[in-house]
């Protein structure tokens, strides 16, 4: 029973990393995908239909952990409180920049929010990397006594920033008009190799130095997931010019792989944290009706909007 609920709950952070990751990556690259106001507005318009639908999975993740695994949620919250504060602050700053940038036409106003958008995107990606890196070291289950920030979380912060930027570039390559799509395609080709190397290096570093990543088959899973992530990034590098939407799917693989790896690390804690039967029945009833509706709405959103922008595209922000 606990394993089934855990697999369902794990889908939510994986969806967040894949579906909101390209929004954060696009924020990171804002202003670097072409000259002038047109390129900046196009960058924001490209993710406009998707960004609320992507970040909702972060809220769903927190709610699901609280409802299904309350002791584990409490342990994560207590052990990672400073990082969670930074993550939420960066998230709010990113969303504020998206909403406010185009409200006033003054150049100084837009420059301020351009910088805020880039910095908050970097901060959100880095905080996410720190959070997952900390959880991989065993902080949430207190199997390892260490301060709020484990040294192994720092390489993950850099890796997640790079992977998120790459994911954003792949999304922009698929959505921007052809005259603007060349720059993000070039970034995917240029960064995919270094991103794959960083991903492999950080995972292997964890296997070599972190005892929790060598227990209960974690080493085998770590190597398998780092191979899958590396292969996906190299494939994205090869196909981005011909099939940018396929490249977008591929660049999301290492980000969702990080969620899976962290989930495997926390599975013993989840086994001991399952909520009572009455609570699970209530959650099951809610998911039975809500989850299909959400998935249908998100599928329709992608069906209607996941195509290259043109002069008839709706302008967001």
Which features characterize this protein?
79% helix, single chain, 13 helices, mainly alpha, 317 residues
Main sheet: strands, sense, barrel: none
Task: Name the poorly predicted regions.
Answer: none
Roughly how many Å is the radius of gyration?
19 Å
- Shape descriptor reads globular
Mean pLDDT: 92
SS summary, helix count: 13
| N-to-C order of helices and strands | HHHHHHHHHHHHH
Secondary structural class: mainly alpha
Pfam family, one: Cyt_bd_oxida_II
GO molecular function: electron transfer activity; oxidoreductase activity, acting on diphenols and related substances as donors, oxygen as acceptor
GO cellular component, one term: cytochrome complex
InterPro entries: Cyt-d_oxidase_su2 (IPR003317)
Describe this structure in words.
The chain is mostly helical and 317 residues long. The chain has one domain (29-271, 286-305). The protein is built from 13 helices and no strands. α2 crosses α7, α7 crosses α8 (153-175) and α10 (218-239) packs antiparallel against α11 (244-251). The protein is globular. GO terms for molecular function: electron transfer activity; oxidoreductase activity, acting on diphenols and related substances as donors, oxygen as acceptor. Keywords: Cell membrane, Membrane, Transmembrane, Transmembrane helix. InterPro entries: Cyt-d_oxidase_su2. This is Cytochrome bd oxidase subunit II. It is a multi-pass membrane protein.
């Amino acid at each position: 029973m606990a394993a089934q609920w855990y697999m369902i709950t794990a889908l939510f952070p994986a969806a967040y990393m894949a579906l909101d990751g390209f929004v954060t990556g696009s924020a990171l690259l804002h202003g670097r995908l072409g000259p002038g106001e047109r390129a900046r507005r196009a960058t924001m318009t490209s993710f406009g239909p998707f960004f609320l639908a992507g970040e909702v999975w972060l809220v769903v993740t927190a709610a699901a952990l609280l409802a299904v695994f309350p002791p584990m949620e409490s342990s994560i919250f207590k052990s990672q409180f400073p990082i969670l504060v930074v993550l939420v602050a960066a998230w709010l700053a990113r969303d504020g920049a998206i909403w406010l940038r185009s409200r006033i036409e003054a150049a100084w106003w837009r420059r301020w929010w351009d910088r805020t958008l880039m910095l908050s995107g970097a901060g959100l990606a880095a905080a996410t990397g720190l959070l997952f890196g900390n959880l991989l070291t065993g902080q949430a289950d207190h199997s390892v006594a260490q301060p709020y920030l484990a040294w192994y979380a720092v390489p993950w912060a850099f890796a997640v920033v790079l992977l998120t930027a790459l994911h954003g570039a792949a999304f922009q390559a698929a959505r921007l008009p052809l005259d603007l799509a060349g720059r993000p395609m070039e970034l995917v080709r240029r960064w995919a190799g270094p991103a794959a190397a960083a991903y492999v290096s950080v995972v292997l570093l964890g296997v070599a130095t972190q005892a929790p990543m060598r227990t209960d088959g974690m080493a085998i899973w770590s190597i398998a997931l780092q191979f899958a992530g590396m292969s996906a990034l190299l494939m994205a590098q090869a196909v981005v010019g011909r099939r940018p939407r396929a490249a977008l799917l591929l660049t999301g693989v290492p980000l969702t792989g990080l969620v899976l790896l962290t989930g495997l690390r926390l599975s013993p804690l989840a086994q001991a944290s399952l909520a009572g039967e009455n609570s699970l029945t209530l959650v099951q009833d809610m998911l039975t009706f809500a989850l299909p509706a959400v998935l249908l709405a998100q599928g329709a959103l992608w069906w209607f909007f996941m195509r290259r922008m043109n002069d008839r595209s709706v302008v967001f922000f």
